[in-house]
Design a protein that fits this description.
alpha+beta; two-stranded antiparallel sheet; 53% helix; 12% strand; coiled coil; Chromosome partitioning protein ParA
């Protein structure tokens, strides 16, 4: 009987929006969109976040590639888009376990091809929104209508069954040393794999948070630059107005000088008239002179008062503009200080945000095991990791360093008469607190010789 063999992996594409997964389709439908056969009017004039998936017959995700795709005003996909999704998925690094072992994951922070990194995006791994968990749940719902392969119990062939002898039917099997070592090795291997997977997840999350922090810093820096440009433009406008006011004041001063010159000319002309009148009579000349002087003084006083009032108004306006210039300069300095403070505190803020999100910093040191480092001890651990591990083992740093050399190479440290090292294998001391220099790192012969020489 011949049966059609179902494909091992199914290719699909998932669309994301602000709320999460918004559309799913098989890869063949996505290729129709890329070829322009089908349009997506709901995504017109937008850049969408998409994910390329490889799904096994049990609806479990095996590979994910997070990428961008642009649509024009009519909802047609970008004709110049050409990203090798299959090759990226096959060459991607290991990611979290979504139910069928670690997946292959390609994103901006984990891209196997560096020049294609700009076309990828990092998924959110926060507690309130985990894009990988959204993908896993969406595929489990099987909205694509995939054929699901049920897991059947394994049936052994009768020829492969073996029956033990009757004398060993009821005797419990003895656990040999080799079985115990194999079991311990298997458990240690599983523990290393789980630890490595947890480290990869935390590194991916740290990379995602670092990318988000850099984007936030870039936005703050962009806003500060825009504010700085606006303030500079306002200062240039005020300086231009100041120059115009100074030019107006210079014009008024020139006008005053012209009026004074005109008054001087009028006075000389009146003086000539007075001298002509003096020849006709002293009395008439005195009357004209008095009238001329009074009229001249009144006109000069009125002109001077008017120009002084205009100059006072200009001085007040100049003082107001100087005050505005000082306030704008103060605001500019404050924004510059805030920007520098944000740049200086970005690293510590990121560590505090990670601690608030529940991220735990775990390191491994021989003798101390896996240590969980509180946020307050991060700086002390960075200064001297071995001193920190020695304190956790309740020994001094020098004793911990000597024990670490013994732990890494458990051989005799004694020096032979020819100047070479003894290097005889000895028992390893597992705990730093039980290590005694000169005893624990020497073979029995040199320990005994050391005691004899001390006694003599």
């Amino acid at each position: 009987m011949s049966m059609l063999k179902k494909p091992q992996l199914v290719e699909a594409v998932v669309f994301f929006n602000e709320r999460g997964v918004c559309k799913q389709m098989l890869f063949s439908e996505f290729e129709a969109i890329l070829d322009g056969v089908v349009g997506m009017p709901e995504f017109a004039d937008r850049q969408m976040n998409l994910a390329y998936l490889m799904i096994n017959p049990r609806l479990q995700v095996r590979a994910v590639v997070f990428f961008y795709l642009d649509f024009d005003e009519t909802g047609r996909a970008d004709t110049g888009w050409n990203l090798p999704l299959r090759q990226l998925a096959e060459r991607a690094g290991r990611g979290p376990d979504l139910g069928a072992g670690p997946i292959r994951l390609a994103c901006r922070s984990q891209c196997p091809v560096s020049w294609q990194q700009m076309h990828l995006w990092d998924p959110s791994l926060n507690a309130d929104r985990n894009d990988l968990a959204l993908l896993r749940d969406a595929i489990k719902r099987n909205s694509l209508g995939l054929l699901v392969e049920e897991e059947l119990p394994k049936v052994l062939d009768a020829e492969r069954l073996q029956v033990a002898s009757e004398d060993s039917w009821y005797a419990p099997p003895e656990i040999t040393k080799e079985m115990a070592e194999q079991l311990a090795e298997k458990m240690e291997k599983e523990h290393r794999l789980k630890t490595a997977q947890l480290v990869r997840q935390q590194r991916l999350r740290l990379s995602s948070l670092s990318q988000q922090n850099e984007e936030a810093m870039a936005r703050v820096r962009h806003d500060a630059d825009q504010s700085h440009s606006a303030l500079q433009e306002q200062i240039r406008t005020l300086q231009h107005a100041l120059r115009q006011q100074e030019e107006a004041n210079a014009g008024l001063q020139a006008h005053i000088d012209g009026e004074s010159e005109r008054f001087r000319s009028s006075r000389e002309e009146m003086s000539l008239q007075l001298r002509a009148l003096e020849r006709h009579g002293r009395t008439e000349a005195d009357i004209l002179r008095a009238q001329f002087e009074s009229e001249l003084q009144a006109r000069v006083a009125a002109a001077v008062a008017e120009y002084r009032e205009q100059l006072a108004i200009r001085d007040v306006e100049l003082a107001y503009r100087d005050q505005q210039d000082a306030q704008l300069q103060t605001e500019l300095n404050r924004l510059r200080l805030e920007c520098e403070a944000l740049e200086g505190q970005s690293g510590q803020l990121m560590l505090e945000r990670l601690a608030q999100l529940g991220v735990v910093f775990v390191v491994y040191h021989p003798g101390a095991g896996h240590l969980t480092i509180p946020l307050a001890d991060i700086a002390r651990y960075q200064d001297n990791p071995q001193a920190y591990a020695a304190a956790k083992c309740f020994v001094s740093e020098s004793q911990y360093r000597q024990w670490l050399l013994h732990y890494q190479q458990p051989t005799c440290d004694a020096t032979l008469p020819n100047g070479e090292r003894c290097s005889m294998p000895i028992d390893r001391i597992e705990a730093p607190s039980r290590f005694v220099a000169g005893e624990s790192n020497c073979c029995p012969r040199h320990r005994a010789g050391g005691r004899l020489r001390t006694a003599g």
